[in-house]
Design brief:
heterodimer, A: alpha+beta, globular, B: alpha/beta, eight-stranded mixed β-sheet, 13 helices
Chain lengths: 520, 259
Amino acid sequence: MNDPIKFNLTGEFDQKRFMGELGDQYRIKKEPVKTETIRIYDTFDWRLFNKSLVLYQCAGRLCLRKLSESEMLHSVPITSNPVFIWEFPNSKLKDQLTPIIGVRALLKLVEIQSRFRSYGLLDQEGKTVVRLAYEEIRSSRSKDAPVLAAQVRLLPVKGYPKHSQKIGRRFEQAGLRVNTEDDIYFKGLKAAGKKPGSYSSKVNIRLDPDMRADEAAKIILRFLLQVIRVNAANIEKDLDTEFIHDFRVAVRRTRSALGQIRYVFPSKTADRFKKDFAFVGKLSNELRDLDVYLLKADGYKAKIAPVLRKDIQALFDYLRQKRSMAFQKVVRGLKSERYAKIIKDWETFLNMPLPDSPVAAANAEFPITILARKKIYKKYRRVVQTGRQILENSDDKMLHVLRIHCKKLRYVMEFFTSLFPPEKMDNLIEQLKRLQDNLGDFNDLRVQEAYLLTIARELPVNRGQSEKIFLAIGSLVGALGRDRQMLKDAFAQTFANFASPENKALFKDLFAVQPSRSKP
Amino acid sequence: VTTLAIYSNKGGVGKTAAAVNLSYLAARTGIKTLLCDLDPQSSATYYFRVKPKLKSGAKGLIRGGQQVFKSVKGTDYENLDLLPADFSLRNLDIAFNKLKRPPKRLRKILAPFKDAYDLILLDCPVTISILAENIFNAADYTLVPLIPTTLSVRTHRQLLSFCKKKDFDVGRIYTFFSMVDRHKKMHRELIAAAPNLFPGVLPNFIPYLAQIEKMGIQREPVVVFSPGSAASKSYQELWDKVQKNILSNLINKTYSVIV
């Protein structure tokens, strides 16, 4: 009831006359003209837009609202531009955005200028009962900049609903219409040449079920190349850790696609690019590991005894130093001739017309759906088989092997999602994800424990603090070991959920190429 | 939500002036604030230029529930709302007495506001009856303005022993000196001695100033119409202290470190 109502101003509307007439009934308090810069933020992958949220900075405050609604959800005072959510002042706004934004940096999408004048309408007591704000929004400070919106906002004052209703009716009588639809968000972004939702790292491709397998593979790989390109271009800016992460995932998916969608390209070509992308992936292995440790720093600190928390800081300082060297190495790698050549050759290959039939590569002319079914079903059975072996004889190495099988299954399911019923695919991928989380976390802890023990040897320490830092690292290794055991204990149940008879039936139904026939 | 009562069992000590200025200062820091004018004389309501009128009067208030929201008025300041007074509040004492479990009723009346606001300030009438018990039950903290005179100190001691007898936590009662005249020897001496006489004494005081009385003409918090004045500074200092000493939980929870 107290939400502001926006009316679009029209050429016919005479503001002076309208305000003059209101002056017969209200004392009018005219405020000076103000200009405000409004900055709209989102992450590179549009996490806020995808949740229909608008985050903007205006007049020293950071404000959150729903897209196409003017009601503010939360706001909080800030003194510097927002970048990472953990730097935000504690507030409801922070609580709501933390799970959405995660580790991504906020980027300024667009800056728009609002020029407005407010009026207070006062009753006989001199109390403000309604506020009006005439506003003009331009894409820049310059007077020639195009006007994106001209509107008047009617701001009701709590406890005085009759007055705002009356003024609202008068605006309508004067020919103004309530603006409920178009959000300045879209106009501002359009003026800046940005398209909301234009990037996502998720595999989002549509394949035609009868398509030739080599054609489908190229569509998938071209999409992945695009993700590689977009992220590589941003890595050097070091805005957040996700550019490198998304880049790596796309490289890994590329390798996986080359390895799994087999015999669709000449084997010499496939082998060459498999090697090339293995090289590209390796470039950033160290950087990614260090990023993970540093992102987890607070979590690690919470795991060790409070008396040692201060002492472990030296470890993270050292890792941060190493990170900046690793980062430079990646930047150099991405600028190298070898990298440029790989990407160029790869693009040339992907854009080459498909060879005419008959093609030497055995699977090239196969319909993609059949190939997809075969591959997914085979991978699924491999996962189940390996999982069963682990249940009988739980071995850390086998858990690692299973993790790799799961990853391969996940990638092929994602490549070919569009060929199968979406709800069933989402459900199966979601269940697979749960198993992968268990295995992934287990593996991360194993790697981290080993890494901590190695790093302890090369850590430069000052006299006096040396014993304590080793105690702190020891305490952390112990805590990680306990976590790892817990994950291992949870494996049996997690696996049983995935390998359930229902899922088995679903996999069989969707992917088994030849339905098993009863013997005569 | 935290509830802070500005209360005194002695009249004319600067309660309302404190309530109006503190609520404004709280709202200005971004804290969603509701000022409840419980005094039938309706001075706080007058200062904010609102008509002293509750929907269905004191009866409606006592009935409680979501209906009380309809009486709330937005002030001319961001984040600050007012629950206006009503002349019928003069019978609040009698009305409370007729109820079951009378001393807890005010707490129940304020309950619906707890999600909508971070801070509720109560501007209380002079009382030490069942209404006072209601106030102590409803408030998390009580702030008592005190004129530095022997009589005031005596009254305050009466209040503290009343609270002890009724089992209210005396540790949640704070005082500050109000209408202080530094030219008077007794004022100076009592201010110096007070921390030894009873607990909860804030070191700040509000001087006796004509600017504060002008609030009646300006009908605005003094902090608004005369921001650079000595009066404004003393209220600002008092608010800083209240925020730090009394409301630290609230501040940490909602609006801590502004980076």
